[in-house]
Structures are given as C-alpha cells and as structure tokens.
Amino acid sequence: MRIENLSAGYGKKAVIRDISLEIKKGEIISLIGPNGGGKSTLLKTIIAELKPLKGAVFIERDDVRDIPIKELSRSMSIVNTDRVKPEHMSGMDVVLSGRLPYSDGLGRFSDADRQAASDSADLMHVTDLAEKPFMDLSDGQKQRILIARAICQEPEYLIMDEPTSYLDIRYRYELMDVLRNLKEKGVTVIMSLHELELALMISDRLLLVDSSGGVSCKSPEEVMESKVLKTLYDMTDDMYHKVLGQLNAPEDHTRKHCSYFVNRKCEYYPCHDVPEDKFSCLFCYCPLYGVDDCGGNYRYSEKGIKNCKDCSFPHDSDNYPQVIKKLKENMYGEAKHR
Amino acid sequence: MPKTDSKRNTIVFALLILILAMFFMANLCIGNVRIGAGDVLGILFSGAGDDTVRSIILSIRLPRTIMALVLGGALAVAGFLLQTYFSNPIAGPYILGVSSGARMMVALLLIFVAGGVTVKGYTLVFAAFLGALAATFFIILISKRVRNMASLLAAGIMIGYICSAVTDFLVAFADDSDIVNLHSWSQGSFSGATMEGAGYCTVIVSVSFICVMFLAKSLDALRLGESYARSVGINVKMCRIFIILLSSILSGCVTAYAGPVSFIGIAVPFLMREVLGTSKPVVLIPASFIAGSAFCLLSDLLARMIFAPTELNISAVTSLFGAPIVIFMIIRRHRGNEN
C-alpha cells in the first residue's frame, strides 16, 4: 500500500496534511497522537470511506477509490469506533457478517464461511458468546466480536480504529499476539492506539499524528530516543517524565534501563551481551525479573541480584511470545490459561 | 447452531404457509352465503358448480382474497424495508405518512386529471407511487436532522396529517360522483376488488418482491451500520435508493388498490423477528410477506364478518390488533434501554 501526498478531512478543512508513506506487506503500523488529531480521519480515508482532499491511497497500482467496492471488501476489513446496535443478532451472527463478501447473492453462508467464522471466534476467545444476543454483551465482549468479524473477512489489510478500547489488559495483550500471528501470515495491520506501550511494543513503525494535522513516521526506537512524544501530546516536563517512567524508557539514553529491548543506545544493547560484572537484569528490565520460575536458568549475584547471563530462555524480542505467555501464566495461573 | 436455526425456520415457515392456506380458504368460504370448502375447491380447479356460487367465488371473493393476500404481504415487506432504512423498528408506511402521501396523489389524480372517469391499473399505481416517494423524501429530509426515534415518528405522523388535510380539501371541492368513488376507497378496504386489479397487483408486487430478495444481502450488511456494510462490499448509496424505490412501489400499490392500511407494516416484521429469533433479511423478508398476507386475510375476513352485512374498513381491524403489538414493542424497547 502506498499513501501519496495525502491530505484528508471533512468539507474543505484539511485535518491531515501531506502525508506520503510506503507500507510493506505484513507491516504493523500504529497511529498515535492526541484526541482530535485526525487519526480516525486518516483511517477513514485509507479505507476509502472519505474522499481525500488531495493525493490518494494506492493498493498496488490502483487508487482505493477506483477499486470496485466488492473487490476491496476481500482485501480490506475494518474495526471502527461506531457503536453498532443490531437487533436479534447473536455474537456468531455478527462474526459471520464478516463473511458477507464471500457469501452467495442472497447473503447465505457456506460451511467454509461458518468454519472461518468459528476459527476467528476461537482466536478472539468469543466462542462462548456465540449464542448470546450481541446487544446483551459487555462493551469489551462486543469489541472482541467485532475484531473477530474483521479477521474472518480474511483481509490483506486490517484497518482498526482503537481496537483496544474496552479491552482489559489480558485481552489487550492477547490481541497483540493475534496481530503478530496475522503479521506472520502477511496481513498488514494499520491501527490507531491510545496505549503507547502497546504501540511501541508491537509496531514496526509509528505514525505520529499531531493536533495541527502534521504526520511523521518513525520507528519505535526513534520515538523513544527523541522527545517527540512530549511535543506530540503537548505534555509538561513533569507529565513526560511520568510517561517515560511507565514506558521504562530513559530520558538519558546512556543509562542502563532500556525499553523493551529496543534502546540501541543502552550500553548493554543487545541485552545479555556484556561482561558479567556489568550485567544485571535489575537495570536491564527483564519482564520476568520478578518471576522465580521464569523458565530460564539464572543465578543470584553476590549482591543478591538476579543474574540472567547465559540464560537458556533469554527474554529478548525473539522470545517475546513465550515471555508474554509466561507473564500471563504468572498473572492468571497456569490452569486458567490454555 | 445452524442446524437448530434451520429447524426452527422450517417449522415456522411450514406453520405460516399452513395458516395462510387456511385463511385463504376461509376467506373464500365464509361470507353472506356460506360455501363449503369442497365446493370452493371444485370451482377453483375443475370449474364445476352452480353458476351463482361460481360468480360469487370467482368475481367477488377470489379477487378480493388475492388482493388481500398480495397487498398484505407487500405492506409487511415495505415496512421491513423502511425499518432497515431508518434503523428504527417502528418505521412503517402508514405511520411515516407514506400511505397518506400516496392517498393524496391518488385523490389529486381522481379529481383533477380523471374528472369522474374511472382510472384503473398502472396510472393509479404510478400516482400512488409518486405520492409515496414524495412523502418518503420528506421523511428522509427530516430524519437527517433528527436522529431520535420518537421525533421521527412525530414527523411522520405530521406529514400524514398534512397529506390527509390536503386530501380532505380536495374532497370538499370534488364532484359528488368523485366523492362516492373516493370515500369508500380512502378509508381502506378491499371491497370492490376486481380480477384485473388483483392481476396488476400480483405482477407489481411479485416483481418488487424479487427485487427485494436481491437486496437481502445488502440489507443484511446494513444491520451493522453503514461503515461496516461498506467494508463488506455493499454499495450503500445504491442500496438506499433501491430501498426507497421499492418500499414506495409496494406501499403505493397497496394504497392505490386498497387505500391506506395501518400497522401491518410495523407489527408483522416485529412479530416475525420475535418468532424466528433472527433479523436475517433472507429469512425475514419471505416470512414477513407470508405473515403479512395471513394477517391481512384474517383482518379482511373480520372486517367483513364482525358486523355483517355492514363492512368495517380494514384499518379498523388491523389497528385493533396492530396497535397493541406496537405499544408492547415500544414498552419493551424502553425497558431494554434503561438497563
């Protein structure tokens, strides 16, 4: 997908100005930025719901606005922030509606459609909600069903506006797992996120949409290294420090803390590849630092600090799914998590 | 899940068809002259039987019954379409003033253009269609400004009143011969149905019904709102235009031949949603059609029979049954919203 010189907005007022971007297959792109900055507007323009004021969005060589809508529906699916109120639809009915592009002329589904829907319901853990009326579900359950709906549409491009809203922390992380799997299957994900830590963790690149309509594209590393978040959200110094604290990111990059294995300026980067006397998980932030049965073999240093040097289960980005799994086990207990 | 669903559907459809067939026969048999079911079948299929009885069946009761069947179904489907369009289960051709709009146009046609000459067939339907279209157009204009269910209904009722008022003015200025013509018709009744009229109706309604069935997939997608419908490949704009055209044709056709008939358009689709436990259009459209037919046949039978030989107008009967259903529906929705 290629975004060329795009300005988007309503009427004549441009909310988003002059963005150009090449998006590779299987990339995860997150839009972050303040409320009202135009994230949704940009997403709506990408899915051809809004007409661009200038420029265009291309899939391969075709302008999305010129692609027949039926064809587009087989390559692109959406989750938006509309609060839908369908009457007399069960959870499964809503998931199944993602298969409409593949159904016959009257909108009837084949067994393959039902299978695909039930697979993606499994994926989003909504199988037990299948029979319940959609309107009776909680907001979080509805959101998961809508995401399952978008996934069973088997898109090449999954476009989501705040998919994590209403989800609790467990489902947020699970959604990230699901997205990672989709990415491996070659699905391109473009979404807006409010949770910076998730955006930094999952995205290949971040689109920073500021309130004046400017858009810049940066890798998570670049975002952490520059002070761009502070200006983007127009934060005071104090706020920014707190946010950085939450993101486990150093303001001074020579310090040992690193942010989810991506702080290239950390003196211990890449993690674990330093002399033993210098290395310490305490400073290098291992997500499983506090977990005794983290799955690796570690020992305690003289200072009583967990030393993960030569760990057989290093907590680096290659092992991320396992780390998350371990975290969940720790959080919810092994039995509950399948 | 699909299995139990399709089982339920089969049972409901079988029952509906059975009820429809029963009412159909009842409408042919019951009347001032009672005719046995055997005789009726004999007349219909082998042309046997007494001449007087034959003419009662073939030129009075059969056209009327066919008309009630076809138009009842048409009303229910028109109601279903309008409900989808406005995403409001209380929308319907009568309550939104669409029927009144159609009635006004027909009155205009009868009084000014035709001037006493009996107007038949397609001209009448066309005028009613235009009236229905105009009324729907106004409702759409209003619905763009108010998103509230109750306000939309109020607007529809007001448009209905305006159209009725205009019709009354027209009647006041009309010739006596026209008034007689107009009066019985503008109350809503299936009396005076002819085989020719029944034929026209059947053709128009069948064609429209087939078109509506082709819209089923789009209507299905629209249940989740416009954005999601677009994302599964539905041309929402075209779909909306078709919904308006088809619902106007259907309700126009009803009004042209039987006058305004109330509540079938709301009550029947609602009942079918409850009975079938789904809102899937591909199931609901035919179910609503059949149930609308049955409802209309029963109402017409009652209209003829309750105070026989005096005939009630059909809306009196449909309102009697339909309005409580709608009240029940509003109360239940209200409760749902509060929780």
The number of helical runs of chain B is: 13
Total domains of chain B = 1
Hey, roughly how much beta strand do the residues of chain B contain?
under 5%
Biggest interface and which pair forms it? A-B, 38 and 29 residues
Helical proportion of chain B, percent range: over 70%
Biggest sheet character of chain A: 6 strands, mixed
Give unreliable regions of chain B as ranges.
Answer: none
Tell me what the structure shows.
- The complex is a heterodimer of chains A (338) and B (339).
- By secondary structure, chain A is an alpha/beta fold.
- Chain A contains twelve helices and twelve strands.
- Chain A is 33% helix and 17% strand.
- In chain A, helix 4 (111-123) crosses helix 5 (139-152).
- The two termini of chain A are 36 Å apart.
- Residues 250-262 of chain A have low confidence and may be disordered.
- Chain B has one domain: Orthogonal Bundle (ABC transporter involved in vitamin B12 uptake, BtuC), CATH 1.10.3470.10.
- Chain B contains 13 helices and no strands.
- Chain B has helices at 2-29, 37-46, 51-85, 98-114, 121-145, 149-173, 176-186, 195-222, 226-231, 236-258, 264-276, 281-305, 314-338.
- The mean pLDDT of chain B is 85.
- Classes of the chains: A alpha/beta (338), B mainly alpha (339).
- Chains A and B meet through helix 2, strand 6 and helix 3 of A and helix 8 and helix 9 of B.
Brief characterization of the structure:
By secondary structure, chain A is α/β, with parallel strands linked by helices. Chain A contains 12 helices and 12 strands. In chain B, 80% of the residues lie in helices and 0% in strands.
